[in-house]
């Protein structure tokens, strides 16, 4: 059985091997799940707020800039190359159903802008709505799954694998 590592709000984690990184009870946060299929490094950043901590450094991981930077730096230290990292996003749900809520939109914009500037492709996302979500990544296979509300877990993304297609000859 694979060990489950919970990535709580404002935290980051990077693992490889037989682990599952998981973030649960995601509301307005955006969780960035990253994978490098060459090194099998998996990372997760549970982003609570957009941008940087106002008036302070951008190192706090609950903010988009600090969280993404820390996760990527940990992946690079573990042997990944930036060009090999792909990400999926889950979250940004207005679970309190406030009409004037802008945090979800701000979180999405902040996270996607940072990833775009770093030229890291977003391969799949499940964002918005008004139900809580969860996300998990199998660190060995790179497969990413999510839930919404009380629904069962669904697959979101799996890295592309080179598949050799063998042609068979048919006599006929």
Strand content: 25-35%
What would CATH call the architecture? Answer: 2-Layer Sandwich
Query: What name is given to the CATH topology?
Result: 60s Ribosomal Protein L30, Chain: A
Total domain units: 1
Describe the structure using short key phrases.
single chain; 172 residues; alpha+beta; 60s Ribosomal Protein L30, Chain: A; 5-stranded mixed sheet; 2 helices; 10 strands
What does this molecule look like?
This protein has 172 residues and is an alpha+beta fold. It has a single domain, classed as 60s Ribosomal Protein L30, Chain: A, CATH 3.30.1330.200. Helix content is 17%, strand content 34%. It contains 2 helices and 10 strands. The protein has helices at 64-77, 103-117, and strands at 3-6, 12-15, 19-26, 30-36, 41-47, 85-91, 122-127, 133-138, 144-148, 154-157. A 5-stranded mixed sheet has the order 1-3-8-9-10, with no helix packed on it. A 5-stranded mixed sheet has the order 2-5-4-6-7, covered by helices on one side. Strand 8 (133-138) and strand 9 (144-148) form a beta hairpin. The chain is globular. It starts with a strand and ends in a 15-residue tail after the last strand. Mean pLDDT is 91; it is low at 162-172.
What does this entry show, briefly?
The protein has 172 residues and is α+β, with helices and mostly antiparallel strands. The protein has helices at 64-77, 103-117; strands at residues 3-6, 12-15, 19-26, 30-36, 41-47, 85-91, 122-127, 133-138, 144-148, 154-157. The chain has a single domain, classed as 60s Ribosomal Protein L30, Chain: A (2-Layer Sandwich), CATH 3.30.1330.
């Amino acid at each position: 059985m694979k060990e489950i590592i919970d990535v709580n709000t404002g935290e980051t984690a990077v693992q490889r091997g037989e682990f599952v990184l998981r973030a649960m009870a995601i509301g307005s946060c955006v969780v960035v799940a990253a994978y490098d299929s060459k090194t099998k490094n998996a990372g997760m950043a549970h982003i609570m707020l957009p941008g940087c901590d106002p008036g302070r450094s951008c190192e706090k991981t609950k903010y988009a800039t600090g969280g993404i930077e820390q996760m990527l730096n940990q992946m690079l230290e573990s042997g990944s190359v930036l060009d090999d990292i792909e990400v999926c996003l889950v979250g940004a749900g207005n679970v309190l159903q406030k009409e004037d809520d802008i945090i979800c939109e701000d979180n999405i914009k902040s996270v996607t802008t940072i990833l775009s500037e770093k030229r890291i492709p977003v391969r799949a996302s499940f964002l918005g709505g008004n139900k809580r979500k969860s996300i998990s990544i199998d660190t060995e296979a790179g497969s990413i799954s999510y839930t919404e509300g009380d629904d069962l877990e669904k697959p979101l993304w799996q890295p592309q694998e080179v598949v050799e297609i063998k042609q068979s000859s048919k006599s006929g």
